[in-house]
């Protein structure tokens, strides 16, 4: 069964505690927090105080997705705010190996994210140093966008690379995941599903999380 990481970007932010309590009661495994700086991506979202507030309420580990330039300036603050996984974009790091090492030395689990245009082959040498690869299945910045179909090929290529190197790196997908494509994604090798709209725009978010957790390939 996949790990489910609901993205609170699409939650009712005027009642964030309700969203976190719902996640606590659900079959979700992690909480996905999208940090955007208005520079790397067009949108601005959460900073450290919000991550800290979520940490106080959440019984599940925080899966923090940084969409910010020069992310290394803030690793320590995210550690102090309670991040468990810290995932940084390949496109934002000049010295990715150093950044990944720093995240691990601080006691967090490092992940690397690829934008839709970035080939998975670029991760060949960094793969043994990271716990997770996040394949963006939309262009980062907003919830509720349409899933990019060519992502399946990337997932399969990445899965192949991971097994060739004898690793057990997690493959995460983020963007446009719904109850129809979730099963196909898991079948292609995905370990972690991020879902914003599918969870928080549902009339029954707990049930939507359960359906993602137990997703099946559509016949
Ligand atoms: C987009 C974010 C996603 C977003 C996904 O840049 O990284 O985590 O919340 O939202 P949905 O699942 O609605 O596409
Ligand atoms: Zn995200």
What does this entry look like structurally?
This protein is an alpha/beta fold. It has one domain (3-213): Aldolase class I (TIM Barrel, Alpha-Beta Barrel), CATH 3.20.20.70. Helices cover 33% and strands 20% of the residues. It is built from eight helices and eight strands; from the N terminus they run E-H-E-H-E-H-E-H-E-E-H-E-H-E-H-H. The chain has helices spanning 16-25, 48-57, 75-81, 96-105, 151-164, 181-188, 197-200, 205-213; strands at 3-6, 31-36, 62-67, 83-89, 109-114, 132-136, 170-174, 192-195. It has an eight-stranded parallel sheet with strand order 1-8-7-6-5-4-3-2. Helix 2 packs parallel to helix 3 (75-81). The chain is globular. The two termini are 18 Å apart. 44% of the residues are buried. The model has no long low-confidence stretch (mean pLDDT 97). The site of zinc ion has 6 residues, from strand 2.
Mind sketching the topology for me?
Layout: E1 3-6, H1 16-25, E2 31-36, H2 48-57, E3 62-67, H3 75-81, E4 83-89, H4 96-105, E5 109-114, E6 132-136, H5 151-164, E7 170-174, H6 181-188, E8 192-195, H7 197-200, H8 205-213
Parallel strand pairs: 1-8, 2-3, 3-4, 4-5, 5-6, 6-7, 7-8
Helix pairs in contact: 2-3
The chain binds D-xylitol-5-phosphate (DX5) and zinc ion (ZN).
Order of SSEs: EHEHEHEHEEHEHEHH
CATH class: Alpha Beta
Indicate the CATH architecture: Alpha-Beta Barrel
CATH superfamily: Aldolase class I
Poorly predicted residue ranges: none
**Order of strands in the sheet with most strands:** 1-8-7-6-5-4-3-2
Distance between the termini: 18 Å
Which bin fits the share of residues in helices?
Answer: 25-40%
Tally of domains: 1
- List bound small molecules: D-xylitol-5-phosphate, zinc ion
């Amino acid at each position: 069964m996949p790990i489910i990481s609901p993205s609170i970007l699409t939650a009712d932010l005027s009642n964030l505690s309700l969203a976190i309590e719902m996640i606590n009661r659900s079959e979700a495994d992690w909480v996905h927090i999208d940090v955007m700086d208005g520079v790397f991506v067009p949108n601005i979202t959460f900073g450290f105080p919000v991550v800290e507030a979520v940490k106080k309420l959440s019984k599940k580990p925080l899966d923090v997705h940084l969409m910010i330039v020069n992310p290394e300036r803030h690793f320590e603050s995210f550690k102090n705010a309670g991040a468990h996984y810290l995932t940084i974009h390949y496109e934002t790091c000049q010295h990715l190996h150093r950044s990944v090492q720093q995240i691990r030395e601080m006691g967090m689990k490092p992940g690397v994210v690829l934008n839709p245009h970035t080939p998975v082959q670029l991760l060949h040498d960094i793969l043994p140093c990271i716990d997770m690869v996040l394949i963006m299945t939309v262009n980062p910045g907003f919830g509720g966008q349409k899933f990019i179909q060519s992502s399946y090929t990337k997932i399969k290529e990445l899965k192949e690379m991971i097994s060739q190197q004898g690793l057990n790196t997690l493959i995460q997908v983020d963007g446009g995941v719904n109850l129809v494509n979730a099963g196909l994604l898991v079948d292609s090798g995905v370990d972690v599903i991020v879902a914003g709209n599918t969870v928080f725009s549902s009339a029954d978010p707990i049930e939507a999380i359960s359906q993602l957790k137990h997703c099946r390939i559509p016949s």
